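Box 3.1 A note on notation
Throughout this textbook, protein chains are presented in two layers. The first layer is the amino acid sequence; the second is a token string describing backbone geometry. Keep the layers aligned when reading.
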Amino acid sequence: MKKIDQLFEGGSVLSPLENGVLEELWPDKSLRVREIYGSLRKRGKKMALTSVAVILDRLHGRKLVGRRIEPARGGLRYIYYPRQNKNGFERSVIASSIDGLIKQFGPTAVTYFNERFGKKGQK
């Protein structure tokens, strides 16, 4: 049961900082680390610029954001953008969660979903 407990522990697949970063990008923006950092600071979030850079790198590794390189004064910099919109992300989390439940519990999970959601249109 440990896997199921871990799946739902905390109720979120993103940390508060990861969520804040993605909220800045989801209106389909392409932003530099410093721009995201500045927006988060204006919203009252206190963190270091390097923390935002690390979070973006992790989100890139998890394929939640993409990045491109652009020349900048003194070198190169990353421009980050969302790989999917917020609705697409939420749907993928739901699909992954349900697939995990079905994989772990098989027919019991399917029966539960049918009982729970199959009756909505029958009243």
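Residues 85-123 form one domain. Residues 86-105 form the longest helix (20 residues).
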